[in-house]
Amino acid sequence: MLTLTFLGVGSAFAKRNHQSNVLLEVWSQPPGEALAPQETLLIDFGTTGPRALYMLKSLSTYAYLDVEGQTNYRAIDRVFVTHLHADHIGGLEELALLCHYKYADVDTGKPYRPELISSAEILKNLWTHSLEGGMGAQVGRTAKLEDYFQPASVPVDGQTVAFTMGRRYEFRIFPTDHIQIQTRYDWPSCGLTVTDVHTGRSIMYSGDTRFDPDGLKSFMQEAHIIFHDCQLAKTPVKVHARIDELRSLNESIRKKIFLYHYEDVWDLPTFQCIDEEFAGLAMPHHRYVLFDDG
Ligand SMILES: [Zn+2]
Ligand SMILES: [Zn+2]
Prior knowledge:
Layout: E1 2-8, E2 21-26, E3 39-43, H1 49-56, E4 66-67, E5 70-71, E6 78-80, H2 86-89, H3 92-100, E7 115-118, H4 120-135, E8 137-138, E9 141-142, E10 150-153, E11 163-165, E12 169-175, E13 190-196, E14 202-205, H5 213-222, E15 225-229, H6 243-246, H7 251-254, E16 257-260, H8 274-277, E17 280-281, E18 287-291
Parallel strand pairs: 3-6, 6-7, 7-10, 14-15, 15-16, 16-17
Antiparallel strand pairs: 1-2, 1-18, 2-3, 4-5, 8-9, 11-12, 12-13, 13-14
Bound molecules: zinc ion (ZN) (2 copies).
């Protein structure tokens, strides 16, 4: 079984929800029967990620994320990074430093280094443009990305299997049209699909993207569940899919879409029809079953 839990469902600037980061879990038995999943993966870990994970661990079937009242970062096997905005990477310094020092192996003293997955360009820029400032200096030495993580660069072509979980869930990574500096896809940003090889069923997780039906059409048609970022408010800045744009999709696709990355206005009366137009607004701290073991 593969499950997905949103640590938060909010936009970068949301204050009533945490930012849109998710926890994937592979289970041999349903949650509650097994104490902990077999494998875990975070998709993004933004500025609010540490606080959101800290709160999640107090829910009963997430107790494996708790160690003596603190967040058990050793339970996080891997982190996948979609792009370098702070709502997607702002929590990585805390995760890395605590894994390096607090969660080092008690016998060997070796730091715990989760796997860190993204494109080669994002991994390079993640260190030199973002993390090196706070993590490059240690007492008596300078440090590299590899001191904190096991980096794994993957292709971003939407076709090649980039990595797997549970030996049956295949991840493919595609570029997203999030921010165009000059041309489409010129600023590295990505989303992903996951396919269960036993059943052929798949899900799509958009990452941050502008409305891009041409680029994402085939993934959306194939998927049985879609998680799509969505901007509810009308602003002139186009870096996310707007609700009115997503409304233009065929009903058969709309009904598969859970909207996430939304602003704090979601409960205004004007948005109450979302539950009828789409699968609904994604809920924080709800464990979605992506694939059961059937
Ligand atoms: Zn974002
Ligand atoms: Zn973004």
